[in-house]
Amino acid sequence: MIGVGIIGLGTVGRGTYNILKQYGHVIQRKTGVDVRVVKIAEVDPERSKGLETDGIAIVRDAWDLINDPRVDICVELVGGTGAAYDYVAGALKAGKWVVTANKALLAEKGDALFALADREGGEIGFEASVAGAIPVIRAIRDGLIGNRIEYILGILNGTSNYILTKMSEEGLPFNQALREAQELGFAEQDPALDISGVDAAHKLCVLVRLAFGVPITMQEIVTRGVSSIEPTDIEFAKEFGYKIKLLAIAKEQGDSIEARVEPTMIPVRHPMSTVGGVFNAVYVVGDHAGPSLYYGKGAGADPTGSAVVSDIVDMAVRKAAKCARRGLAAGDSSKRIKKGDESVTRFYVRVKAQDQPGVLSKISGILGEHGISIAAVIQKGRTENAYVPIVMLTYEASEGSLKQAIEKIDRLSFIGGPSVHMRIEEGDL
Ligand code: HSE
């Protein structure tokens, strides 16, 4: 028998417990291993109300569970980077293997924890930390092991994707769309993590370490959230044949890896543009496999519980066979993470300018001085001397040069406010 201890009976803790209770016998039949929850730790007695535990002890102190010799696998589902770190580190030191859904913990303290797991001969399972139910960690770690991963595009935050879908398809205002996403139970306790892009960046951190073997910190990921997107940019994007998505992008470029989370325009014909509502998706390009796409629910009790259970069973089978594997292989690559302004891509630029002769040539002149070439222009409205939006798509340019050019453009006398720019990603179709 492999004993499981669950720390934290929140949404995912309950989902995990219920799935193991429902399918424990099926898992035993399929794998030959009896996987059983033997203890649960939860400080808030309210959270265990109504849970049929069949006599399994619910303790308040997580250390009681960690130090229980019947527990082989500790499942950390408390979240955050404080107590959760102590529990994971403590469990590894006590010789337990650990399963976690905690993307913030892995992004902020993953290097230390995976090094500890290697030293202790333990493991950390983290399938549930990225894109909930989607088995994308396994896809990259096992299914695509015969590949060098070249490119990853992720829609990794359901709340942001819901907001963008509602804004673009139903014209809902940002705040109303956010409220609806919160009501669906997808938003983080602090929704600022969702709308600022930080939650997606936590998940990208995990994917970059796994796929590229590069150590990466959150500070190295250029992170922008959906709160800056204006309905007018969604409309212009449509006119050019693009959708705006909050994309997590990781791309191998020579000796460096580009890693960013930001509102990005993607062609409507790209499958990632069709991922709507709270759904997540990850598009992975390997040198041999080519592109593959993974789609599903990124949050919730059952979807995330499903991923947690997959790690528990995977570990239980190998624990029973006494064969551990290495976790996140960060540090086995010499590649570095690219700085934000080095990024070279096509851009969408919207300036607010007075409608006068010569305006466009001044703007394109400044872009030209910075080596930026324009691929398409739209001007909306025709009111002499009033401000109108002028929207341009550029050919490939470095973000550093574009920012310098925009700074100059925004100082021109006929410009009526800060210009907006956004990355365009063709998505390697
Ligand atoms: N707040 C996250 C989301 C939940 O909106 O996708 C899953 O990590």
Word description of this protein:
With 429 residues, the chain is of the alpha/beta class. The protein has three domains: 2-132 and 301-320, NAD(P)-binding Rossmann-like Domain (Rossmann fold, 3-Layer(aba) Sandwich), CATH 3.40.50.720; 136-297, 2-Layer Sandwich (Dihydrodipicolinate Reductase, domain 2); 340-424, ACT domain (Alpha-Beta Plaits), CATH 3.30.70. The chain contains 13 helices and 18 strands. It has helices at 11-31, 62-66, 83-93, 103-120, 136-143, 158-170, 174-183, 192-195, 198-212, 231-239, 301-320, 359-369, 399-410; strands spanning 2-7, 35-41, 57-59, 73-76, 97-100, 124-125, 149-155, 222-223, 242-253, 256-267, 279-286, 290-297, 336-337, 344-354, 374-379, 387-394, 397-398, 420-424. The strands form two sheets. Strands 7, 8, 9, 10, 11, 12, 13, 14, 15, 16, 17 and 18 form a twelve-stranded mixed beta sheet that branches. Strands 3-2-1-4-5-6 form a six-stranded parallel beta sheet, sandwiched between helices. Strand 4, helix 3 and strand 5 form a beta-alpha-beta unit. Helix 3 runs parallel beside helix 4 (103-120). The chain is elongated, with a radius of gyration of 24 Å. The two termini are 47 Å apart. It binds L-homoserine (HSE).
